[in-house]
Amino acid sequence: MSRRVAVVGAGSSGLVCMKCCLDEGLEPVCFESSDDIGGLWRFKENPEPDRASIYHSVIINTSKEMMCYSDFPIPAHFPNFMHNSLIMDYYRMYADHFQLTKHIRFNTHVLNIKKRSDFSRSGQWDVETENKDGRREKHIFDAVMICIGHHCQPNLPLHDFPGNTW
């Protein structure tokens, strides 16, 4: 029986985590709250609440050789410093090549993750989700990987800068 791993988020980290799970003979189930992969790198003219989005003209400030996945080089014809649309193209190629999308449950929010009552013996986790139609499900996983990024909630330490109002 394959060990099941919950992967929360299908952005750059979630994609590679699913692929690594597959490499190790694990069964990843990715919960992505939006309708597509890419996370922060998927440009949206009107970003959804609590979801980060780059702006339309962003060009990555890291070379393609430094930002690519080690087992899937970025195509040679892509520029060294890529526009965000090419990063999304690359993520789609990666997901297609390793058949990752079949492991993703789109439009599914993770509501709760907690250790099972027998965690000290089983090492398992309870994961509760809700899809876009409002249907809730409870799942049991052997491991959990949180890949939601860190750009969703603004960090504005305004108390550290008296007199400034932003």
TrEMBL record:
It is an enzyme of class 1 (oxidoreductase). Pfam families: FMO-like (PF00743). Keywords: FAD, Flavoprotein, Monooxygenase, NADP, Oxidoreductase. Its EC number is 1.-.-.-. Its cofactor is FAD. Belongs to the FMO family. This is Flavin-containing monooxygenase. It comes from Ilyodon furcidens (goldbreast splitfin).
